[in-house]
Amino acid sequence: MSTIPVEKIRNDFPLLKNWIYLDNAATTQTPYQVIHAMHEYYTSYRANVHRGIYELEARASEAYNYAHALVARFIGADFYWIDEEKDFEFSELIFTSGATQSLNLVAESLSRGWLKKGDRVVVTAMEHHSNLVPWIRIAQEKGLELRYVEFDEEGELKLDQLESLVDDNTRVVSVTLVSNFLGTINPIEKIADIAHKKGALLVVDGAQGVPHMKVDVKRMDCDFLAFSAHKMLGPTGVGALFGKRELLEKMEPYEYGGDMISDVERYSASWNRLPWKFEAGTPKIAEGIGFGAAVEYLNKLGMEQVRAHDYELIRYALKRLEEVPRLKIFGPSKPEKRGGLVSFAFEDVEGVAKGPHAHDVADYLARRRICIRAGHHCTLVAHKTLGVSASARMSTYIYNTKSEIDAFVDSLIELEKKFRS
Ligand SMILES: Cc1ncc(COP(=O)(O)O)c(C=O)c1O
Question: Active site residue: 38, 378, 382, 394, which one?
Answer without folding.
Answer: 378
